[in-house]
Amino acid sequence: MKKSQFLLLDAGPIIELFELGLWDDFIGKCDVTLCRTVACEAKWASQEDQDICIDLETYERANRIRILDVELSVVKAFYERFDLSYRTELHPGEKETLAFLHGSSEPWLLCTADAAVFKTLGVLGRSAQGISLQEALAQLGLGRNLGWKYSERFRQMYTALGQTDSIQGRGLH
Amino acid sequence: MQVGDRLRIARNAIGYTLEKVAAETEIGPSSLSEFENDKREPRFSQLSRLAELYRRSVDFFLSDDPLIEDVMLWRDAPVEEEQIKRTEAEFRQLCEQYHKLELLMGESKAVSLPQAQGSREAFSVKEASRLAENFQEQFLRGEIPSTSIRHVLEEKFHVKIFHLPIAGSAISTLSPEFGPAILLNFQSKLWRRNFDLAHEVFHLLTWNIFRDPGCQIASASEHEEKLANAFASRLLLPTDAVRDRIEDRVDDRGQISLEALDEIAREFGVSLDALLWRLPYLYNIPAESIRSYLDKAGHMRLIRPARQSDEPDRLPERYCGLAIRALREGRLSLTQFAKYMGLSYKKAEEYLADEGELTDEEVSIPIA
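Output (structure tokens, whole complex):
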């Protein structure tokens, strides 16, 4: 029985896990799901100054992770909820993943290293569904000291910005 | 407008056939055709892949706003249509990315480029020169306009200026979406780039006079090109400053050598030919005489050392500055940043290395 059910949003945490050599351990300890666009974005990582190619579809074929496709109309409906600043900040993989999360009633956790995602969760009132990579690794017993954007403080800071926008009536139509 | 229409417009704009797109994306031609005819909706990941190939943002396909295609005005366009479309697609993508950075950082509002008044039939060389004089007096500091023009255009008017290796000299556009933009040939010499930039500024300042709204014709008439050259010549070679330099170098017989003129041209960042063509306006020298000097100037180019020509940055400094700030303030993801800057993910990460320290209050400097 795996410990957690995760949704890996950003290419950033995936690349970081490959660079740390923790990817296989990570997906062995939790159910990892990601969106197809994110899988396309996370194609390369570097280890000891060498670029390594990431082929996430190999893991999908081996049933070790799940890659999902979201309908365009679902993403479009989600996209139209936001004002220009939020629309601009989210990149395609994030739009797809957040649209999926927003339409799901399951208790997904989003692991990202991107401020725009934490802000969006904050503005949507879904702050509890965001998690930093450092926190995720700690929960799985793989704890490491990571860079700023993978930290709990980073998540808290940007989630709070989204919450503030929500209180002040910004971000959503 | 439906997604299908936008898909077709974007594919046609970059000049790809359905077969080529199918080969690049592994989406079958019949599916692509169904997407374009709104018979079937692509999955979002397929749309993302198509957007990437067409050099468009995903937002272009999600938007319901009315679609206005930009007019790209070429100088010395290549013959091959395919080459034109690819270059325009790359240029448009860079401009859209630049605009997105401006939006992210709240810097999208700038002073608009002043638009010249008049009618296209009555616009004369004299008026082009006057326009250049006014622009120089109002906005360019110092006696050597070529040293400040790019900076003023970028910083004051937020003109997006890129350099790419292209077949052709330059492109300009005044987009309703991302504003004024100029693409220069990365491989051109500095003096040529200076002249091309000034030439394109004329097109931007007179866009409303010479371009009909809604018209997609992307070439200028011979007359308009002549006016743009006159404008560029006057802008880069201001009357008083050039006269002063020439008179300083005139010998006892009241003559100046081509070598001295070449040095003055170098100082002003223009070609010797451009300076020679300015002389009829400054000293009433007949055009026939100028042509004979041009022949001699051609010979002199063979015996004079080549000018030092600094290589331009592919991306504007302001663009890079906005991207770095957007990354550090968490408004742009590292993946996007790497794409915008043309860097590998690993290289892009270096820009974030000290983020923790950079945001600490202890490195802030109290000013007030």
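The mean pLDDT of chain A is 90.
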